[in-house]
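User: Run a structure prediction on this.
Assistant: Running it now.
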Amino acid sequence: MTLTTEFLLWMAGAVLWAVSGLAIVRYYLTEAELAGNNPGGGFKYMYFAQVFAGFAAFVLVQASDTRETAATAIAQETAALRALVMVSTAGGMDADGRIAAAVKDYGEAVAADEWQEMAAGAHSPLAARRFDEVLRAFHNAPATDPATTSSPVAAEMGSQLAVAAVSARNQRIDVAAGNAFDKMLWTAVGALALVSIAFNWALGSTSVIMHALTTSMLTMTMAQMLHLAVLMGSPFAGSAPLSPHRFLALPGF
C-alpha cells in the first residue's frame, strides 16, 4: 500500500466515522435539543479539545524522536561494522576475508529477514546468529601479524567498534519492540480523539449540512495528526518505513 493510498483511506475512514455517528445522534435528538447542548456542552468540549491537543503534540514529538532514534541506531551500527572490516583488513586480522564475509552475511540477513520481524515488534533469530558470527570471526582473528606493527592497535580499535555495533543493534531492536508507556499514551490519545469527536456530534446547528461539514473537517484534522504520528512512530512498519539499504551496502567496499 502506498503512502497516498493509506492517507486517503485514513481520511475516508474519518469522514465515515464522523457522518455515521452524526446521523445516529441527529436521529435521536431534535434540532432544538442539539442547540440546547451548545451553551453547557461547549465549555466541556473546549476542555477535551485542549487536552487532546496537548496529548497529540506530545505524541507527535515522541513519534518523531522514535524515528530519529531508530535512524541514528541504524547509522551507528552500520558505520561501526563497516569500520570494523576496514580496521581488521588494515591491521592484518582479516587476510582471508572471513570478517568481511560475516559482516556482509549479517547485513543481508537484517535486510531480508529482520526488517520484517521488526515491523511486528520482534527481532530475527537468523540475524542474531549472523551477528554472533561476526563477533566470533573478529575475536578469533590473529591478534598480531608479523608483517605489520599495527595489529595490536587494530585489535583494540576493533573491539571498541564491536561494542558500538552491539549497543546500536540493541537500541534498534528496542525501538522496534516499543514499550508499555507508548501503548498507554496511544490509548489515551485515541480515547480523547473519540470523545472530542463524539462531543461535536451533540453540539449542532440547525443546518444538517453545516453540522456534517464541520464534524467531518474536525475528524479529518484529528485523523491527519494521528496518521502522521503513526507513520513517524512506526519506523519499521507502515507505508513509510526506514530503508535497510545501509545494511545491504555492508561491508561497504
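DSSP finds eight helices and no strands in the chain.
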